[in-house]
Amino acid sequence: MEPCFLTAAEAAAHIRDGKLTSEALIRSCLARIEARDPRVKAWLYVNKAQAIAAARELDKRAPMGPLHGLPFGVKDMIDTADMPTTYNSPVFQDYRPARDAACVGVARRSGAVILGKTDTLEFAAAGRRAATRNPKNFAHTPGGSSSGSGAAVGDRQVQLAFGTQTGGSHIRPASFNGIYGLKPTWGAVSREGAKQYANSLDTIGWYGRSVADLTLVATAFRLDDAGALGAPAVSSLKVAWCKSPSWHKIEPAGEKALEAACARLAKAGATLVELTLPPAFDGLFEAQNTIMMAEGRASFLDVALEFGDRLHADFHERVTNALGITPEQLIAAYNLAADCRRAFEALYADFDVVLTPASPGEAPEGTYNTGNHIFNAIWTLLHVPCLGIPCTTGPMGLPVGIQIVAPRYGDARLLALGEALAPVIDMETPLYRADA
Amino acid sequence: MEPCFLTAAEAAAHIRDGKLTSEALIRSCLARIEARDPRVKAWLYVNKAQAIAAARELDKRAPMGPLHGLPFGVKDMIDTADMPTTYNSPVFQDYRPARDAACVGVARRSGAVILGKTDTLEFAAAGRRAATRNPKNFAHTPGGSSSGSGAAVGDRQVQLAFGTQTGGSHIRPASFNGIYGLKPTWGAVSREGAKQYANSLDTIGWYGRSVADLTLVATAFRLDDAGALGAPAVSSLKVAWCKSPSWHKIEPAGEKALEAACARLAKAGATLVELTLPPAFDGLFEAQNTIMMAEGRASFLDVALEFGDRLHADFHERVTNALGITPEQLIAAYNLAADCRRAFEALYADFDVVLTPASPGEAPEGTYNTGNHIFNAIWTLLHVPCLGIPCTTGPMGLPVGIQIVAPRYGDARLLALGEALAPVIDMETPLYRADA
Question: Which among A130, A134, A131 is positioned nearest to A365, based on CA atoms?
Answer without folding.
Answer: A134
